[in-house]
Amino acid sequence: MRRGEAKELPDRVADRSAAVAVLGLGYVGLPLALTAAEKGFRTVGFDVSRRRVEELLSGRMGVKTAGEERLRKALESGLFRPTWEEAELREADVFVICVPTPLDRYRRPDLGYVRSAGEAAARALRPGVLVSLESTTYPGTTEEVLVPLLEKTGLVAGEDFEVCYSPEREDPGNPRYSTSNIPKVVGADTERGRRWATAFYSALVSEVVPVSSCKAAEATKILENVYRAVNISLVNELKVIYERMGIDIWEVIRAAATKPFGFQAFYPGPGMGGHCVPVDPFYLSHKAKSIGVSARFIELAGKINRDMPGYVVERLGEALAERGKELRGSRVLVLGLAYKPDVPDTRESPALAVMRKLKRLGARVEYYDPLVPEMPEEGGLRSPRRSVESVEGAGPFDAGILVTAHSSFDYEALYRALPLIVDTRNAFGRLGDPEGKVVKA
Ligand SMILES: NC(=O)c1ccc[n+]([C@@H]2O[C@H](COP(=O)([O-])OP(=O)(O)OC[C@H]3O[C@@H](n4cnc5c(N)ncnc54)[C@H](O)[C@@H]3O)[C@@H](O)[C@H]2O)c1
After folding, report:
1. Does residue 101 line the site of ligand 1, with CB under 6 A?
2. Mean pLDDT over all residues of the chain?
3. Choosing a second label site near 3 at 20 to 30 A (CA), which of 100, 165, 313, 382?
């Protein structure tokens, strides 16, 4: 309990006198901060990127999701204050850390952002507060990395303040689910920590799922993402085998999915993208290695999925050869630069890997993605700089590769405009391919 403060955190949550600070205003932190403000909490959104804060203060979301209308209302209510001034954290009763957890160039966890956000929280730490880590990471991070940073203040976790871990389950671009209607797993190492964390998150979301420790909550998130990574790699492997046997994996999955129990459909693709599924499993495999256990499934899934862009390009080379053409010198259009449909996010997008591979093999590469009009700098490609404005206008192309099936694409028009299409998502399947132009890969 805070010195001179009569009420415990759950009571201050209930009467909304508790102030919230969200550290990191990206894909995860911003929707959470907006939800907290909408639920009546004074909410400071702290981000080290001044540019990001200025963008939000002027009512713009940038490429990140969640509606600008929500942002405008939250700013107008006076309850949401984005800032780059660390001093504004001093009032907070609940700190929620939503900063990036990338891999470094050796595919090892980079906890630098978590450490620096933890240090900022430590500088503002007072008795009676709750610190929640939401960044995806390996089991043990909260206890082994975050708590020691916070305890450097002389305050003791579980006695003077509480700590919890609560993984984020945002699904950008999915209109059915947002922060408030996705069940939220919350783990803490003390009974009081679980009670405080449950009280706080119950005020924001419709369902809280408490677990017995921070580690269990961290492991839950990793399980969810390893499950996706392994199953996607499995169908990708089957796709390659079945293709050599003349079997269409899409037809097979459609049939298998009619089984009413014991089967969940996963779909093949050109590789895995996004910030989570290609990255998070390696947080666990790194941790496993450090305790002398190997995470064989995770490593194998990563390898299979990383091989997919090469496989797709190989299929294009074969299809061109069958038509008496060579990949070298061919003009190839990549359809969809984002890593998933209907979002502008290109992080780890397999489209970038496909384009790099095509260029290395001498193809002339362009891309079409109305959601990503400019090539992002982190894509590692100096050209092309921009999306073509229209496929018909920029043609003729020797081939197209459908990497991401945006719902805004006019598939009939693309089919008419391109002489050969390598389709990694079965997006052209429903057109029936009357002219024999489509190769699934
Ligand atoms: N994007 C998703 O869909 C998603 C889903 C589930 C979990 N996650 C996890 O959530 C975490 C955050 O991901 P994101 O997609 O929101 O990242 P993001 O890159 O969109 O945003 C992170 C923000 O944190 C800011 N930041 C960096 N260091 C900071 C610090 N020390 N203090 C304050 N702000 C800081 C950055 O400027 C940036 O604006 C990651 O661990 C990620 O794995 C993301």
Report:
1. yes
2. 94
3. 165
Distance CA 43, CA 151 (A): 24
Indicate whether 239 pLDDT > 90. Answer: yes
Whole-number Å distance, alpha carbon 142 to ligand 1 midpoint, is 16
Please give the number of the atom of ligand 1 that sits closest to the Cα of 276: 43
| CATH superfamily of the domain spanning 9-212 | NAD(P)-binding Rossmann-like Domain (3.40.50.720)
Q: Is the pLDDT of residue 32 over 90?
A: yes
Ligand 1 geometric centre to CA of 110 (Å): 13
Q: Which atom of ligand 1 is nearest to the CA of 52?
A: 39
Helix or strand or coil: residue 396?
coil
Global pTM exceeds 0.85? yes
Calpha distance 388→395 (Å, rounded):
9
| CATH 3.40.50.720 for the 280-440 domain, yes or no | yes
From the candidates 98, 164, 214, 276, give the one annotated as an active-site residue. Answer: 276
Q: Counting Cβ atoms within 10 Å, is residue 225 exposed (0-12), middle (13-18) or buried (19+)?
A: buried
Domain boundaries, the chain: 9-212, 280-440
CB 366 within 8 A of CB 333: yes
Q: Are 235 and 241 in contact (CB under 8 A)?
A: no
Residue 19 three-state SS:
strand
Q: For residue 132, how many other CB atoms are within 10 A of its CB?
A: 28
Q: Which two tokens stand for residue 284?
A: 């666990």
User: What span, in angstroms and rounded, lies between the C-alpha atoms of 189 and 217?
Assistant: 10
Residue 420 confidence (pLDDT): 98
The response to whether residue 83 sits with its C-beta less than 6 Å from ligand 1 reads no
164 is catalytic: no
